[in-house]
Amino acid sequence: MFTARTANAYLKTPRERPARRQLFGDLWLEGELLLLFADTGLGKSVLAMQIGAALAGGKPLEPFAPTTAPQRVVYFDFELTDEQFSARYADPDGGPHSEDEKLFPDELIRCPPREDTIMPDEFPDRKSFLIHSVIDFIEFSDAKVVIVDNITWLSASTEHSAAAGRLMRFLVDLKNRLGLSIMVIAHTPKMRRGAAVDLSHLQGSKMLANFADSIIGMGRSSTGSDLRYLKPLKQRNTATRFDERSVPVFRLAREGRMLGFTFVDNEPEARHIEGYLRGAALTEAIREDKMRRAVEMSNAGDTVREIAEKLGLAVGTVSHYVHGRGKKAPPKPEMTKNAHFCSHVFTSRCSVCEQKSDFLNQKEEHANTQ
Predict the structure, then answer these.
(1) Nearest to residue 36, comparing CAs of 276, 212, 175, 180?
(2) For residues 348, 349, 353 and 356, what is the CA-based torsion angle, rounded to 10 degrees?
(3) Beta strands at 247-255 and 227-235: parallel, antiparallel or unpaired
(4) How far does Cα 331 stand from its chain's mean position?
(5) N or C: which end of the chain has fewer CB within 10 A?
(6) Going by C-beta distance under 8 Å and a sequence separation of 6 or more, which residues neighbour residue 155?
(7) Which of 243, 219, 246 is nearest to 232 (CA)?
(8) Tens digits of per-residue pLDDT, 112-161?
(9) 350 dihedral zone (left: phi>0; alpha: psi -120 to 50; beta)
(10) DSSP H helical segments within 92-226, as ranges?
(11) Tell me, what DSSP letter sits at residue 53?
(12) Across the chain, where does the E strand assignment appear?
């Protein structure tokens, strides 16, 4: 069961092996077992499908593009029915599209379970038959990248340490035996408002985290309904360059039929935690987010009325945003003088400070007039 060499011999091995290539930037490398988890409805399946498409030769998700050549990717989809998957990537306007129009590369293979499958007698239960079928198709397809959406279909008892350990040992063995790179999607219970994403939010036992090579949590941003951020929580084979001080932020949006994420920036996690912005600062952040989105939608060709309907705003408000009349004036020098009056986080954008500045300006103008 063991290989025995001197300790010095093992030190030479890494130099002889080629460096692991990137699958999703340095957040997921070749030969790794990655756990991606998030609350329900945040878009983790959309992100996984987008990553799979990029690996199969589709459009990369910058700046986390793969360094591998296009390859076959198998996506075991236990979440969506065929109808739900088709609806997710349908034309939002309901218009027809050509049958020859390919949204995904041919090397991305989606594998949902068949509802009419009869379990053979040689299997003791359906879970055993399911796992056998997963292995059988991976070997048949000769794919080296596998995505499983989601982990509860492989084992419904991941909250128990023993069951979680068996499942993760099976995945690690499968990865090593077939030379795979595996992404497994997991859920998190409803997160408490104002809480940072951490390993305690991973649904089930800590045993899942112990066996994984990399773990990424997806969080909801409080600054925009379409914003999400990714927080790498474990990276076994690379140095961690992201933490709570800097997390990659993405926007979930539709571009034609394609629903996917686009990179925004690297920002502190605290800026996106629910409850971080309060009062006037939160109101202003929401207003600026809607104003920015209105301008982007206008540049994309949407009419003022269409934008108002999509964002839930009045037509007049959208008109102000689109034509620049909704933009705030640059901060006055007096704002800096009065920043110590403000307890808000973003003192440079705080409406309280600006109101004080305007008041002082009016007072000075009145004194000069007198």
Answers:
(1) 212
(2) 120
(3) antiparallel
(4) 34
(5) N
(6) 127, 163, 164, 166, 167
(7) 243
(8) 998 888 889 999 988 889 889 999 999 999 999 999 998 887 776 656 66
(9) beta
(10) 126-141, 161-178, 207-211
(11) H
(12) 33-38, 73-77, 108-111, 145-149, 181-187, 214-220, 227-235, 247-255, 258-267
